Inverse folding.
């Protein structure tokens, strides 16, 4: 189905099932421990062995020798695979660095070997006997030091009007630089895979957000035909972008299995995850804003520097600045430095998350310079059209409504405009606001829908559920379309033998994948109507029956003994070019800052989101509160500590890379504005999973400033960054 | 993890003797620290002596009016004990500020005293570390040192002791009771129990090879207000940037021990004369010899400000 004209009324609009706060249909499996995660497919795979990955001990250089004798002779060892005996390997399209080092080493903890043994303990013990000698090479590990060598990234550059001229003459100006650190996805489930060969065919049970990308890149890496690779990933214990791509667990399991002639399972040990896989790259961001005395933006410029492995890409931290606020004169530019740290790549809301961390502090600073309320300053700079091309409207943009609703609900009027005024005992109190913005991406997505002789519906698509609720919203979509209750729908996901879907990434998954299911259901409805001799436009699917005029047939009868199957995909046309499709929100936060120690503690948080139709308010709320929690991490504690001499992230476990714990998150609220966006898809939905993160950290930063009067522009805002500027103690 | 042999100890003295007989042997109590380190091959004992069956899990009054804490009393039970809460509140509060409920259920008094540093380089066997591998160098010097020591450290090691409990015990003048492999017993004052790193950061305590901890004894209650303040980057489940254990009397005198600043709980008795004059004077004396790195210089300010808050709480 091609989606190239705005959606009109369709069966989804009944909202009998879609739009309802339905419990997760996979909830029972998960809470009872029966949902098999990647490492747990023990029923499917018999007689498996265990692989343990050895990571490079240097950041850059070459391997000069490997002594595998002790490892090979260790008890239970079946095979040791290194670049020497792995055979020729290709590289995945989505990978920057190779997934098996040798002889060159591109980054710290890049895999150099996998040791396969009968038991996990034997594999781990033998892995520690692998002796590798290296010749280290000089590398670049320090973004600040490499900043001047960074090159402009062409496709990122945009300029409208005369930014420099307009900024120079603007009556009120801000020119400030902000930094965001490298961050780790730090999801609970590690990267894990079980590989089993059947002749020249390979099946891999894995934990991957994008089945089609993963299967393609695994085939490319192993130099084998794509159709001989099957990926299965029904449940994923979190990804946040860390599992968008093929990673070494799948490759090492496949190579280890080939060498050991046994199925092999590999999970990356936690200390390897941080330097072996991808992370969100650090940024340095310069923001310039010029306004008139009335607060209207006349010039807005945003430049960002980040680094990556040779051949890698930038963190696109300036994207939102092209679209979020009005202003006739605009400039955005990314610059990319070559760094020899581990590979940078997407983490939840890539681009906008770090971009808004900076931009939305800048907006707060500007409001203060103008003596304006930060909500009002944002409101007067709203735009309903793409400011770079005013003939392109936003499909639906309710930023102002989000800000106004949030201010009202949060009690924003109680905020003191002057910082450092509110106090409760030993706590300095402050409130902060930030706008949330994330583009709405759409991706081709396919599904197969089967109606059986009992009137039950089965949906198959390679869409993944990374804890987000995909199973549930897909079941809701199919139930709504076919006129059955949700318990009559079975959803099967995450298998590359199912139709290729949008996958889970970039918050495109919910809207695109349900739209794909919608398309397949439309096809199935038409087939049912045709079979019954109904005019498909008149056929009503309701209560397990199909009706037209005064004729009514149960779905079971309609399907007959053989059942009926339809497969289709949603393909998106030009609407996303003609209309700017984005999601909006506003975050409000109240913090307390300990007047003595500078410790920051969140008191309450509110997110107001306008993101198209909310397919399931319960799972959507979970996405947003989870994202807000991640925003607290980004604001207050998350930072991969770079050892700029040795070239690696030092705090490579969950004791040292801190993420929020329950005690950090006392009170969260989420409001979804009523919205449908007929430009986005037949579902009229957009994404929320990343929107919820965008702007959170800046709202916290602004609240801290409001509490203390000390402006910190370097994340995370740990107490040492403002301690020596806090008021003297009496 | 290296393969190891295993036995269950039958008595404290026998545990010590067994440890002396088997070079490379280690006691295992709750295992919450030792097992993690074994998985990473930072600890590689060839033999484990499980001491959990020993009846050392009781709290008993001492004839002098103090309290004797068995080596195997779990952190949860110690923190919840009525006598501890009433008379040694700083200890209860320090324990509850540490780790998580699940870990405290397993963690023992002796194991907590002997937990090893959280210096991140110590945990990465690719990196030089004098504590893990004597003579290999110290990666933290000139590296990521935000968490590490500001006082009492050496060129060989700038690690900190991560225990919260030990800081409170230092303020309470506890005594560590042991039995040696030859069967003799002794009491080691807590002030002498943990060592500064010097040239031998791998030797962390006064314990001799095989020496086994049987109990920790607290002297009679010191009275006063007991405060434990742990400052950290998140609200719970994190090691201290700085912590302050204080016992403050009505007249403003008091004892102060610091965590998170040194290779051992940091207390300078001579400096405590300054406590009545306030946090600034007291901390200037307590951290007089501080030599922080660029990354952890804030700890000196933080310690002073935390003490200020602690003294205010004690007065309040
Ligand atoms: C995630 C995490 C977070 C933590 N957070 C904190 C925190 O915030 N604050 C804090 O203070 N601690 C914290 N800890 C550390 C925790 O307190 C210790 O792991 C625990 O106290 C160790 O006790 P155990 O009985 O498990 O020791 P074990 O691991 O069994 O033993 C530790 C050491 O003591 C030796 N040993 C044990 N008993 C004896 C004995 N009777 N005589 C001689 N030697 C003995 C062992 O041989 C071993 O070397 C944390 C730990 C973890 C894993
Ligand atoms: S500070 Fe101590 S523990 Fe850390 S690397 Fe140096 S020697 Fe090792």
């Amino acid at each position: 189905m091609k989606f190239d004209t705005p959606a009109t009324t369709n069966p989804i609009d009944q909202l009998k099932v879609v739009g309802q706060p339905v419990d997760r249909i996979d909830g029972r499996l998960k809470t009872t421990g029966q949902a098999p995660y990647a490492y747990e497919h023990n029923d499917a795979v018999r007689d498996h062995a265990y692989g343990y990955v050895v990571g490079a001990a240097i950041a850059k250089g070459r391997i000069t020798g490997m002594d595998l004798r002790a490892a090979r002779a260790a008890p239970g060892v079946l095979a040791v695979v290194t670049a020497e005996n792995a055979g020729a390997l290709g590289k995945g399209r989505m990978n920057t660095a190779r997934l098996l080092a040798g002889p060159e080493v591109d980054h710290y903890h890049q895999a150099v070997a996998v040791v396969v043994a009968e038991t996990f303990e034997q594999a781990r013990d033998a892995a520690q006997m692998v002796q590798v000698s290296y010749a280290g090479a000089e590398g670049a590990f320090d973004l600040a030091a490499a900043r001047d060598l960074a090159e402009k990234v062409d496709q990122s550059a945009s300029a409208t009007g005369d930014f420099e001229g307009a900024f120079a003459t603007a009556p009120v100006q801000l020119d400030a630089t902000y930094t965001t650190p490298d961050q780790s996805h730090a999801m609970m489930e590690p990267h894990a895979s079980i590989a089993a060969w059947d002749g020249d065919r390979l099946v891999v049970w894995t934990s991957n957000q994008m089945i089609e990308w993963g299967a393609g890149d695994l085939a490319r890496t192993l130099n084998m035909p794509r159709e001989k690779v099957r990926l299965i990933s029904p449940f994923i214990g979190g990804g946040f972008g860390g599992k968008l791509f093929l990673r070494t667990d799948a490759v090492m399991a496949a190579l280890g299995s080939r060498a050991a002639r046994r199925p092999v399972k590999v999970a990356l040990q936690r200390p390897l995850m941080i330097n072996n896989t991808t992370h969100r790259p650090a940024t340095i961001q310069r923001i310039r804003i010029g306004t008139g005395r009335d607060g209207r933006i006349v010039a807005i410029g945003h430049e960002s520097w980040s680094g990556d492995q040779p051949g890698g890409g930038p963190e696109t931290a300036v994207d939102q600045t092209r679209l979020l606020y009005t202003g006739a004169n605009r400039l955005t530019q990314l610059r990319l430095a070559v760094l020899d740290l581990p590979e940078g790549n997407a983490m939840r809301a890539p681009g906008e998350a770090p971009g808004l961390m900076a931009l939305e502090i800048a907006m707060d600073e500007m409001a203060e310079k103008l003596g304006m309320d930060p909500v009002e300053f944002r409101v007067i700079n709203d735009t309903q059209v793409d400011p770079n091309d005013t003939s392109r409207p936003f499909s639906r943009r309710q930023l102002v409504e989000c800000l106004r609703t949030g201010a009202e609900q949060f009690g924003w009027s109680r905020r003191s405009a002057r910082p450092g005024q509110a106090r409760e005992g030993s706590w300095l109190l402050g409130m902060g606001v930030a706008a949330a913005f994330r583009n709405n991406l759409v991706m081709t997505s396919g599904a197969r829908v089967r109606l059986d002789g009992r009137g039950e519906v089965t949906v198959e698509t390679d869409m993944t559920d990374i804890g987000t609720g995909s199973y549930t919203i897909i079941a809701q979509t199919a139930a709504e379309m076919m006129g059955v209750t949700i318990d009559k729908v079975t959803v099967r996901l995450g298998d590359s033998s199912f139709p290729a879907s949008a996958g889970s990434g970039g918050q495109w998954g919910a809207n695109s994948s349900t739209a794909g299911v919608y398309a397949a259901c439309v096809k199935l409805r038409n087939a049912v109507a045709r079979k019954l001799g109904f005019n498909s436009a008149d056929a009503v699917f309701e209560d397990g029956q199909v009706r037209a005029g005064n004729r009514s047939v149960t779905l079971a009868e309609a399907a007959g003994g053989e059942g009926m199957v339809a497969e289709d995909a949603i393909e998106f046309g030009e609407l996303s070019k003609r209309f700017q499709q984005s999601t909006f929100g506003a975050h409000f936060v109240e913090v307390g800052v300990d007047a003595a120690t500078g410790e920051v503690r969140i008191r309450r948080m509110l997110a107001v989101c306008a993101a198209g139709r909310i397919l399931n308010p319960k799972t959507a709320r979970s996405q947003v509160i989870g994202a807000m929690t991640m925003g607290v991490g980004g604001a207050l504690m998350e930072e991969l500590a770079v050892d700029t001499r040795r070239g690696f992230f030092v705090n490579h476990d969950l004791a040292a890379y801190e993420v929020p714990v329950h005690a950090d998150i006392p009170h969260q609220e989420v409001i979804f504005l009523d919205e449908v966006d007929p430009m986005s898809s037949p579902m009229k939905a957009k994404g929320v999973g990343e929107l919820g993160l965008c702007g959170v950290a800046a709202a916290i930063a602004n609240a801290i400033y409001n509490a203390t009067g000390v402006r910190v522009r370097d994340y995370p805002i740990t107490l040492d960054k403002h301690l020596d500027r806090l008021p003297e103690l009496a | 993890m290296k393969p190891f042999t295993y036995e269950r100890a039958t008595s404290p003295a026998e545990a010590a003797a067994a440890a002396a007989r088997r070079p490379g042997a280690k006691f295992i109590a709750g295992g919450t620290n030792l097992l993690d380190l074994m998985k990473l091959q930072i600890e590689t004992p060839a033999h484990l002596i499980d001491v959990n069956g020993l009846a050392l899990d009781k709290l008993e009054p001492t004839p002098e009016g103090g309290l004797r804490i068995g080596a195997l009393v779990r952190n949860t039970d110690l923190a919840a004990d009525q006598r501890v809460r009433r008379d040694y509140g700083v200890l209860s509060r320090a324990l509850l500020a540490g780790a998580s409920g699940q870990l405290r259920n397993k963690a023992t008094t002796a194991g907590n005293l002997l937990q090893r540093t959280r210096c991140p380089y110590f945990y990465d066997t690719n990196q030089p570390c004098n504590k893990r591998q004597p003579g290999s160098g110290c990666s933290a010097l000139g590296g990521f040192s935000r968490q590490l020591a500001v006082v009492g450290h050496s060129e060989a090691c700038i690690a900190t002791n991560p225990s919260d409990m030990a800081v409170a015990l230092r303020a309470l003048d506890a005594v560590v009771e042991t039995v040696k492999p030859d069967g003799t017993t002794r009491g080691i004052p807590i002030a002498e129990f943990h060592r500064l790193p010097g040239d031998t950061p791998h030797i962390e305590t006064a314990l001799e090879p095989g020496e086994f901890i049987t109990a920790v004894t607290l002297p009679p209650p010191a009275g006063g207000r007991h405060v434990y303040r742990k400052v950290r980057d998140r609200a719970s489940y994190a090691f201290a940037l700085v912590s302050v254990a204080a016992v403050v009397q009505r007249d403003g005198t008091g004892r102060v021990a610091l965590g998170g600043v040194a290779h051992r709980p940091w207390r300078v008795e001579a400096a405590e004369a300054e406590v009545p004059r306030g946090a600034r004077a007291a901390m200037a004396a307590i951290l007089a010899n501080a030599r922080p790195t660029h990354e952890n210089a804030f700890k000196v300010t933080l310690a002073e400000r935390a003490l200020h808050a602690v003294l205010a709480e004690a007065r309040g």
